[in-house]
Amino acid sequence: MLRRGPDAVQVGLHPGRAVVLHGAGPRALLRHLDGATARARLDEHGAAAGLSRAEVAEVLDRLAVAGLLETPGDRAPARAVRLVGTGQLGQRLAELLLEAGLDLHLADAADASAVADGGPLPRSSGVGRLRPVDHWSKPDGALLLTVVVVDTVEVDRVLTAHLLRTDQPHLVLRSSGTGVTVGPLVLPGRTACVRCTDLTRRDADPAWPVLLAQLVRLHRPAPAVPAAWGAAVAAAHVLAHLDGVVPESAGATLDLDEDDHLVRWRAWPQHAGCGCTWSGTTEWHA
């Protein structure tokens, strides 16, 4: 809450959503919007400040319309994301997603026992919940996205093909040694998939399949700054997707380069030879 003058206060900072209230009555009412005061009591506090019930309701309505008023019933249920892969890049992303209140299903066979014992995220505030799952497990109804994080130059195509085949939206985050690449965010049937990018690269360079076979095994962990940068961008794109917003990584990649500290965005078309837009039926196998 900010003072705008002797008789006005501003609630909120966003230019398009901030609400300006005039008069001593509304200012007094705001002091009781602490999350612990019942609605009926707000009418009593408003009356003590010289406000009618209608005026109290008007103040509350303005704040609610602007998204500045939260009631217990407004709180969204927990949302879940599966994270495949850890390492420095994966750990930084996991910490951010937990801080954002997401439930995190960590799928990495090498670290599952550590997670079960309370690790490997000691710096996380634990706002969200963390539990180990299997790479190939069927996602439950709460799981809205899978994020694949690797410290190799390219991601394992067996995993991304499985996610596409089972209609699971997924975001790729990978390291190149001197930087990090965020994307593509694959929305099956709607955006380019990882195989689309391979076919486009093969069209431009026939040697790409040979190079790819080596790059999926080439470990190049990102330095601290690009890792933090890439994890922050990826976390923002995860939250955007969960909120129903299509982020810049949908069918595209963002290369974050430590050498010149620039972001290079590239859109990838759905390749005619891929077939990822064909309709089909998802099958789960035990």
TrEMBL record:
Source organism superkingdom: Bacteria
Name of the protein: Bacteriocin biosynthesis cyclodehydratase domain-containing protein
